[in-house]
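Researcher: Here's my situation. A collaborator sent me these components and asked whether they could plausibly form a single complex. I don't have experimental data yet, so a predicted model of the whole assembly would be a useful starting point for our discussion.
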Amino acid sequence: MRVLQASGLRFTYRGSPEPALRGLDLEVGEGEIVGLLGPNGAGKTTAIALCTGLLPVQEGEVRHFGEDLRRAPVARRRLLGIVPQEVALYGTLTVEENLQFFGRLMGLRGPDLDRGVALALERTLLTDARSRPVRSLSGGLRRRANLAAGLVHGPRLLFLDEPTVGVDTQSREAILESLVRLSREGLSMLYTTHYLEEAERLCHRVVIMDQGRVLVAGSPGALRAQHPDCMDLRALFLELTGRDVRD
Amino acid sequence: MTDFLRLVLAVCGKEVRLLTRDRAGLIVLFAMPLLLALVATVVQDRAMQLLAAPQLDLLLLDEDGGEAGRILEEGLRSAGIFTVSRTLDGVPVTEEAGQRAVGLGRYQAMLRLPAGASRETRARAQGLAARLMSTERRAAPPDLQDLPRPPRPILRVDPVLPDAYRKLLRNVVGGVLQGYETRLLVEATAQEIARQAAAAIGAPLPEPVRQAMETIPAAALAMSPLADPDERVATDQPWLAMPSAAQQNIPAWTIFAMYLIVIPLAGSMIRERRDQTSLRVRMAPGGPSASLLGKALIYLGVCGTQFGVLFAAGVLVLPLVGIGGFAPGAQWPGALVVGLATALAAVAFGLLVGALAGSPEQAALFGATTVVILAAIGGVMLPLFVMPEPLKALAAWSPLGWSQRAFLDLFLRQVEIAAVMPWIGRLLAFSAIGTGLALTWSRQQA
């Protein structure tokens, strides 16, 4: 079953002469990690905002679990999770208090909430840091706590916007291993990153986009096979999007 | 319990944790306004006591030694404003020592009455009476050039004495001495009339006539009620006409404190946008509404706590430092309603600044500055009656001023709550408009 299906998405921000998306198509299957790659300004964040319902669809369609986002019950949003680019947590609250709050916000309570918090802590290897205020954590631990907050309510589709920015190698490894385990457990993910080797290693499929359009889509292996002159994803990315520095 | 209510409670719990762990925020919200209220009340109480019943210490250097000095001292004392001393450090005051003491601020003024003041004044009055009663025919007032001229008293004042007190002192001294001169003139005139009448009839005046003539000066000086206006305050309850320092300051600084929530409230909204916790909130069904409602409820609670703390300080702490005058008494219900309307307006203002400002720093600067300006023009920092007319007109546009007027009407004029409904209505309208604009703007930013 297609967990996420976006087709023909076009979106123009108010006051902007150019559309941010020009007919984007995207699909994420069950347990699949799809990497959404592109230079700055390609439209990745806009695509995630439309797919999560944070921005209203102007043109095109977004379906979650086969149902149109605009017609689906609001409670269906509880099946979605998000890990924003920033560490979207309250610094003076402990890790556990943050997870409890976001869990409650997503409708958990009682034993379900306790179980969700414990599981999210365990999956992100944060059980020992549960009582520490977020502001006292290192950058890597904060990023893991950010991931845990997206997992606490047990979503079936997770949107991750550059979740490993600015973390050391060990924490990045921990985060990537967690994501692989979650994918094996059936969690579907739409993942944006500028670290192409990370996408090549983690993602079942990647979508390279620029200027609001999909340039190519497929598994990293298939894309390499289609472009034999590109030795890796980075080379393919640069060939497709050019070497000009973006804003 | 509905899901939405659970969400609101979750937001409330989170906000309480965030607030109670923000020590600087707690100081801004509670300790600073409390300190401001107490200090301002004590300072203003002293200033109002001076305004209401100034007490000036005077030195009297009486070189004359006659009745002018005695009458002047009695007149100054009876004014109830001055203490008069003829000695300095236990010895009779001298020109140099008195001037030094006044210059140092130990005394507010020294009045020197030169030698001969009494004698020359009496001689001038007698000379004037003789010329006024002269039987010579004349077309113009008599020439007074050659009459004796008493020496002028000399007044030395403390250089920092406010101008109003200088004028007050001059008026009192002038009034007393003018009264003395008038009495001498009337006495001299009466004596001259008696003398001329006796000369005309060629015999001493009959005793009843002579006694009647002697009463003329006292009767003349006591005749006019024009000089003693009947003073009444312009209210049905005259004992409540002037605000005490506590009546002015406790409600004023409570209002000010309530509006200070703009800093943490707007700051928290902006931080949530900036660190993207708002994205998670918006992903939750009902999250944005629950988040705003939860914040609003908690900050209403903060305002309620500020109201309780500051009013309790007014009732319980101020009397410990000798300042009374704040006893809401039967006006508690009205005060609570005004307090609630003020809190709603303050929260709406916080939400609006949170929606409009781009950073917590911007919100803190803009919010705090705006609150100070609105407080100043609204008569919160200083009573409206001491402000210039243009600022009084501006007070009509300050929500803080509306609250202050409502509190003063309740506590000072003892009006019913219905009488302050226009102010409450304005506050509620401000709250509704502010919240509506904040919601609209927040949605647009989302």
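Model: Some features of this prediction you could bring to your collaborator: Chain A has a mean pLDDT of 91. Chain A touches chain B through 29 residues (CB under 8 Å).
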